Amino acid sequence: MKTRNDRFELVSFSAWAPATMKARELSLAGVRSVFFAMSAVLAVTLVGTYLAGNAVIDTTKRRLLHEGLEGDVQEAFSTLKDAETGQRGYLLTRRAEYLEPYESAREVIDARLRRLRAAADNGDLPVALVDKFERLTRTKMSELAATIADARRHGLPTTAEFVQSDAGKRTMDAIRATLEEIEAHEKHEREEIDASARGLTNLRTMAFAAAALVNLGFLAWAFRRIRREMARRYVADLEAQRHQDILAVSLASIGDAVIITDTSSRITFVNDVAVELTGWSREAALGQPCAKVFRIVDETTRAVVESPVELVLKTGKIVGQADPAVLIRKDGGEIPIDDSGAPVREADGALRGVVLVFRDFTHHKNAEREQAELKRQLEVANQAKDNFIAVLSHELRTPLTPVLATLSTWESGRALTPELAAEVKMLSRNVRLELRLIDDLLDLTRIARGQLTLHREVVDAHGLLAAVVEIFRADFERRQIRVAVRTAAERSVVEGDPVRLQQVFWNILGNAAKFTPDGGRIEIATSNDNGNLRVAFSDSGCGMSAGTLGGLFHPFEQPERPASRTGGLGIGLTISRNLMHAHSGDIEAASEGPGRGAKFSVWMPALGDDQVPVATAHPVRREAEATRPLSILLVEDHVDSAGVMARILNSLGHSVEVAGTIAAGLAALRGGGFDLVLSDIGLPDGTGLEFIAQARAFCSTPMIAITGYGMENDVAKHRDAGFLRQLTKPIRYDQLEEMIADFVRSTAG
Question: For 582, which of 122, 131, 258, 617 is 20 to 30 Å away at the CA?
Fold first, then answer.
C-alpha cells in the first residue's frame, strides 16, 4: 500500500447537516468568543462615536472662530469707513464734533488688528493677507490723521488739494481688495469645515447605526440559538438519520464497491457492489472484521496484503494500492482489484471509522494483457521482418557471387575485345546496382534499429565526387547527357565515412541521371558557406511538384516520373538524409515544378586549415601482388559460387579443396595441412559459427567468414566466434585477391 492524497475523506453523518444545524455544534468556548467579539465591537463603536462627536464639536468651534475673524475684518473696515466719514465732515465744516467717529475708530481698529494678528500667528488666517490688511489700514489711518492735522494748521485750500489727489481713494480700494481676499479665504475654510463636519456627523450616525445593527444581530443570533437548543435533541436525531439515509443511498448507488468500518475495523456498511464482489451477503458482512470479508493477496507473490482499513487506522491518512492485488471471494474465486481507504472523521477531526473503496480491475487487466500480447506480436513481426530482410539479403547475394566474381576476373584480364569488355562492364555495373539495392534495404533496417555506424576519417569530398562521376561516365556518354562539375569550394576536406559519403553522392547523381532525358544536362557545383561544404546537383529532368517534395525523403515513396522512367525502391534518399544527419549535415531538395528540373543540395561541416593533417595517407587499392601459395579449404554449399571462387584462387597460385557441408569441412580439417579456411555461414547442416566452434576443438587454422548477412551484429558475431574477418557476398575478384594478399602479409615472418 502507499499513502495518497488524491482521494476524499468522509466526515461523520451528523456533520453533514445543513448550516442551520451546525450552529448547535458550537462549544461553550465558541459562545464566549462570540460574546467577547460582540463586546469588542460595541466598545469600538462607542469609542468611535465619542471621538466622532468630539471632532464635530471641534469643527463647530473652528467654524465659529472663522466667522468671528471675518466679523473682525468687516468691523475693522466699517470702522475705518466711519473714521474717513468723520474726517471728511471735519474738513468741510471745521467743526470738532465731526472728529468723534475718527477718534473712537482708532481704538476699535487697533483692537481688531491685534485679534487678526493673533489669528495669523495661530495659523487660522494667512499671515501675508493679515500683514497686507494691517499695513493698508494703518496707512489709511495715518492718511486721515495727516489731513486733519494739515487742515488745522493751513486751512481748507491745502487740504482740498490733498483730497483731490485720490490717494485716499486708492488706499481704500486696496483695502477693499484685501478684504475680498480674506473673505474668499474664510469662505473656503468654512466650506471645508462644513464638509468635515458633515462627514464626521455621518460617521457618528453610521457608528450608531452599526452598533444598533450589531446589537440587533447579536440578539437575533442569541434568540435563534436558544430556540435551537430547546429542540436540539429532536432535530439532531432527525437530521442525523436523514443524512445517514442519504449517504447510504448514495454509497449504494455508485459504481464502486464501498465498505465502511468503525474504529475497531468492524463493518458498519456495505453496498450492493461490494456484496457482489466479495460474495458476502449484507446481513452476513455487517459486524464482521473487515479482514475476514475483504481478503486480498499480492497478485505475483500470493502473499497476504495488509488491508487498507488497517493502514488507515494506523496512520490516519488516505492510502491506496501500490502493487497489483487480488480479492479472494467468499466462494474462493479471485478478482483483480484496485482499492483505497480513507478516514471517516467527525466535524472536529476525531476519527470515527474508515471508508474502503474498491473496484473490479478485470477489464483493465485484460486490456493490459491484450496490449502486452499486441506488443509482443509486433516485436515478433518486426523481428521476423528483420530476419526476412537478412535472409533475403543472403539469398540474393549468394547467386550474385559467382556472377560478380566471374565478371571481375574478366575485367581484370587483358584478353577481351573492346566490344566484349564494354559488355562485361555493363553486366558488372548492373550487378553492382542490384547489390546497391540489397545494401539499401539493409541500411534502412540499420537506421530503424539505430545501428547505423560510420568509419570516420579525413577525406577530400572533391575526390569522392570525382569517383562517383567516373562511375556514371559511361552511362552519361551513352545517353549524351552533359555533365558540368565546378569545384569552387576552397575548403573541401571533411571528417566522415568516405564509403557512406560516396553512397550519398551516388544516390543523388543516380536519381539525376534516371530522371534526366537523353541529351539533357546535369551540373555539380561545390561551395563554402557558414563553415560548411555544400555540394549542389542540378538537372534538367522531369522536376517535381510541391506534393512530391513534401514526401521525397519518406521511405518507399516515389516521385512522379515520365512513363519511360522506372524508379527504385524509394529508399535511397531516405538513407542519404539519415547518413547526412549522422555527418551533422543534411540534404535539401527544390524544384520549380514538373518539367523544370530539380536541385539537390548536400551540406556538412568542412574542416578548417588547422584541422586538416599536413599529409594524409589515403588507402590506395593495391595492384595484384605475388603471394606465396596457400593451401585453402573452401567450405561453400553453393556449387556455382564454390566453383568460381576455387577457379579464382587456383589462378592466383593457391591449392583449393572444396567442402559443401560442416561434416565434410571438419573431415578435411582433420586431415590437416591447410593454411587458411574460407567458410560460408549458411550451410546445409548448420552454420559457419557451429563449424568454427567444432573445428576449434582440434585445430587453430585461421578462418575467414563468407556470408550474405551484412548487418553490424552479424559482423560482430562472426568476429566473436573467431573469424579473422568477413567477406560479404557477392565477392569480387579484386576483393578476394586483396584479402588473400593481406592475410599473407599479416602472417609473414
Answer: 617
DSSP class per residue in 511-541? HHHHTSPTT-EEEEEEEEETTEEEEEEEE-S
Give CA–CA dist 390/711, Å, rounded: 8
Q: What is the DSSP letter of 606?
A: P
In whole angstroms, what is the distance from residue 350 CA to residue 11 CA? 9
Q: What are phi and psi of 594, to 5 degrees?
A: -55, 135
Q: Could you tell me the CA-to-CA distances from 337 to 274, 324, 358, 364 in Å, in that order?
A: 12, 8, 7, 9
Q: Quick check: 104 and 149 in contact, CB under 8 A?
A: no
Residue 691: which residues within 8 A CB-CB, separation 6 or more? 635, 662, 665, 666, 679, 683
- Distance in angstroms (rounded) separating the CA atoms of residues 330 and 673: 79
CA atoms within 13 A on the CB side of 741: 13
**Run of H or E residues at 270:** strand 267-270
- Give the CA distances from residue 742 to residues 238, 696, 712, in Å, rounded to whole numbers and listed in that order: 103, 23, 22
Residues 6+ apart with CB under 8 A from 639: 660
Phi, psi values for residue 583, rounded to 5°: -95, 15
Structural domains in the chain plus CATH codes = 28-225 (1.20.120), 254-360 (3.30.450.20), 367-424+624-749 (3.40.50.2300), 453-611 (3.30.565.10)
pLDDT at residue 413, rounded to an integer: 61
> What is the Cα gyration radius of the chain?
57
Q: Is the peptide bond before 289 cis (omega within 30 degrees of 0)?
A: no
Amino acid at 47: V
Helix (H) or strand (E) holding 483: strand 482-487
669 within 8 A of 639, measured Cβ to Cβ: no
Tell me what percent of the chain is helix, strand and coil, each rounded to the nearest 5.
Answer: 60, 15, 25
DSSP 706: E
pLDDT 10s digits, 497-524: 888 888 889 889 988 888 899 999 999 9
The 3-class SS string of 180-237 reads: HHHHHHHHHHHHHHHHHHHHHHHHHHHHHHHHHHHHHHHHHHHHHHHHHHHCHHHHHH
Res. 246: pLDDT tops 60:
no
DSSP structure string for 308-347: HHHHHHHH-S-EE--S-EEEE-TTS-EEEEEEEEEEEE-T
Owner of C-alpha cell 465732515: 89
| Contact by Cβ (8 Å): 175, 140 | yes
Element housing 502 (H / E): helix 498-514
Find out whether 686 and 662 touch, Cβ atoms under 8 Å.
Answer: yes
Q: Do residues 319 and 311 lie in contact, with contact meaning Cβ atoms separated by under 8 Å? A: yes
Q: Do 496 and 459 meet the contact criterion of CB atoms below 8 Å apart?
A: yes
The one-character DSSP state at 368 is: H
CB contact at 8 A, 269 and 51: no
C-alpha distances in Å from residue 579, one per residue of 309, 458, 500: 60, 16, 7
* 3-state secondary structure at position 598: strand
Q: Which helix (H) or strand (E) holds 434?
A: helix 418-449
Summarize pLDDT for 151-161 with one digit per residue, the tens: 777 765 555 56
Contact 438, 729 (CB under 8 A): no
How many residues belong to the chain?
Answer: 749
Question: By the 8 A CB rule, do 19 and 347 touch?
Answer: no
Using the structure block, give the residue that is written with the C-alpha cell 557451429: 690
DSSP 371-403: HHHHHHHHHHHHHHHHHHHHHHHHHHHHHHHHH
Phi/psi at 688 (nearest 5 deg)?
-65, -25
